[in-house]
Please model this.
Amino acid sequence: MRTQSIVKLIDAVKDLDTKSYSRLKEAIEKRDSVKFVSYLLNNDNNKMCCPYCKSESIHKWGIRNDLQRYKCKECVKTFNVLTGTPLANLHKKGRWLSYAQCLIDGLSIRKAAAECGVHRNTSFRWRHRFLQNANHIKPDKLSGIVEVNELIFAKSEKGSKKLKRKPRKKGYRSPKHIPSSNRVFTLFCRDRSKNMFDDILNKFSAEHIRSDLSSLIEKDTLFCSHNKAAYLKYTKENRVRHGVLNMSKGESVKKDVVHINNVLLYQFNLQVWMIRFRGVATKYLHNYLSWYREMDEFDFSITPETVLVRAMRPERYNTNHFR
Ligand SMILES: [Zn+2]
Model:
């Protein structure tokens, strides 16, 4: 735009009434945001390859919707940086960073929808797409002293149009009051370097713990837990050193180092954080666990840019680019 035109435009802004000024401001913010998000996406530092045949022999093929397109020399298909990622085919890019901020703030689907000016169905879809990669970002190894504890959730069909049971008038007073057929077991492991692993178990047994932790726990690890039979059996059968606590008799620390205080604190904070959602559907529980784990990994100071880039490319996980 010529300098003269810009001066005229700036002059015109001075004469705008409040309503017109707000509309103009909104349009500028929206444009800036789309550009910024596209810039973030287009400038991904990873070497691009074809999402269809994984060939690195690609070349640029124009720009569409602010995103650089590429063409594969091998399979001749075209794609952009979002093709094959959880964010593919989502619209309204300009609001993605605001939505990432809503995730950081732990807003409900309705509140996030209102904050970003999108429909609640869009808010719901975005939440689960943004968190899809977080489910796969877990540590490969836990070492040193590993604190382990389970947590029981009640099965929930929240959001289902047809309940398979009578609706409950009240929640359960404590996990002990949840009938065994209605329990969902989750396992939490945290080493002293704050590496965090969690998973949903089909059943709380030594076999299920082993299949979950076989490649995660190193041989010289000190496995700290209370004295439930499943933990005793797992550690004995797999020759894992076990720092066992008899917590029902008030034993919370042994030899100064054997305790599970860090994992207990993590679970407590997670449960407090989850209160705001007023129940979580069991089929989405893993997303909420991953969501909280991601926040914890960054000591709750993760930026919207990091949330967005991780939602697009989990392999960026180990880079400190946006931290
Ligand atoms: Zn290809």
Remarks:
- The radius of gyration is 25 Å.
